[in-house]
Amino acid sequence: MASAVGTLERIESFHPERAVDVAEVADRLGLSRARQRLFAKIHGLRTLRLDPDMGLFDLVLPAARAVLHAVADPAQVRYVIYAHTSQAVTPAELDAADVIRESLGLDRAEAFGLTQQNCAAGLGAIDIAVELLRADGGGDARALVVTGEKPFTPLAQLVPNIAIMGDAGAACLVAVGGAGHPVLSYACRTLGEYADVIALTEEQMQQFGQEYPRVLADVMRTAADRAGLDFDDIDLVIPHNVNMFSWRQITQEMDIPAERVFLDNVARFSHCFASDVLLNFTTLRQAGRLVEGRHYMLVSVGFGATFAAMVIRYHSPAGN
Amino acid sequence: MVSITAASAVVAPPTRRFDHGPDLLTWHRDMAAPFGLTVDEDLLRAGRNVSHRELLDELIEAQDVRGASPDLIIVAHALPDMHPLFVGASYVNKLLGGKALSFAIIEQGLAAPFTALRIAAAFHASGRSSLSMIAVLEQTTLPTRLPLVHDNELVDSGAVLLLGHGQGMRVAGVRTVMPGESVRDRIVALVGGQPGQTLVVAGSRVDADAIPDGLPVRWCDPATYCTSVWVELAEHRDTWRAEYSAVVLCDSEPRSGRTHLALLAGSTFSAVPEGVRYAGFRRDS
Questions:
Q1: B56 three-state secondary structure
Q2: What angle do CA B179, A126, A274 make, to 5 degrees?
Q3: Helix orientation angle between A121-136 and B112-125, rounded to the nearest 10 degrees
Q4: Which positions in chain B touch A188 (Cβ < 8 Å)?
Q5: Which residues in B lie closer than 8 A to residue A131 (C-beta atoms)?
Q6: A121–B103: do the CB atoms touch at under 8 Å?
Q7: pLDDT in tens, A221-275
């Protein structure tokens, strides 16, 4: 088994209380009856959280604040990494990552945004945080990874025929050699031929759909291999909530039972950009479904197109 | 320590045609509205409309960079692309072999490329990268008025650095100097006592008093912002490597008040600088 360098010391999530029926959103997005049936029957979407009165930072900050409760001294937080799907989440007048840093009172931290891995950016941010902390010498330094964004415009609310986007935020405290869940591996692959998301032709979308299960399965197997594990050693896949249909394709491609992937939140939350895997982790933890010492694989795919998987071992210190 | 093995730069490429469709205009309007801003379509029409894709195309076609196959690609910018759904890091990844881990560092003003340099050096130090690419991009066509851009008549510009284990100036340290701290003292601490001469390359927003007495300084074009010291580095690195024992890149971010330093060491710059630990990177605190 691979030796761990990074650890996830605390993971928290946040979502608005307001739940909306997917049919209501679909009407607003102008989806035909046939498209609505696709999302309901084939993709398994039922409700999502949307609060139009909740601003971007109202959504992002609660989970980050909850994570910081685990930090004895805020000066320990050396990096704040705001990972998001959209290339920009505010106008150029604002640096969103710096607003987050300042709101959290992390006066001396380096704050930056991480993008261009789209919905896989949260896992990428954890990987980069580990490398930065390792280069700094580890010690008591920490990095705060923050996710969450608003589906603020029609192009951000819907991935045609694939996903409808909802509100959620999440955060994760990363350390090197800390007491949290050891990160055993990270695997990532980018298919740059799908980089121009808005300009993809019907033919390119079909090609992407055909490549998707094979490439993601390959990345997941690579992550297990780098962790020094067989895929059978992975207790549960904690996925992004893109839709049920694509995960059925993956489980068929990998010849694993559907129960090996946690999909309950697809119907409850739909796809919440880069927050899904951390949101799903907290759901499982609250339900008591994560077991000390067992291995879990976090998996996400970002349009554009980046495929990422990370293996962790669950280790629960008090209070997490 | 990783070295800068190749580089390219582009400044003020030809103006392009305005081609925003209704979906993109809606995107910009919906993004601006919650922050109390209004999109000015005339700003877009009057802009140079040079996209990140066009900057990247030109930068990677340069002789020194063409054909490279990096395993790590980092795009860094302070000002967003006008095409918010184009993933430039993935695009250039495909053009350069498709094997790289790729992403973008943003929302840090002109500190973003300094952070990209930290990350690239960290990946080299841990053995996860043997050839990385940093692309620093600046396009100036924005949908809302931003004094930093529009009052300073910024031009579109970009720079690419390749970092590997070949010959070139070594990346010996990256520092952040907080508001109220002495930039001059930090530069002296970085390079003090070294044989030979050190050049300071300073962005136009750096306070002239921050440059230690006796060190030669090269001031960057005030029409560049995030790209300033990186364009200069890409254009003059071979000359500087021959003439100086070390180069300090220095730029001050007007929004945060922080100043960012990168120490590039030549072959005669052998001592380990002040405060350096592990791979040579730390934030001053």
A1: helix
A2: 100
A3: 70
A4: 101
A5: 119, 122-123, 126, 128
A6: yes
A7: 999 999 999 999 999 999 999 999 999 999 999 999 999 999 999 999 999 999 9
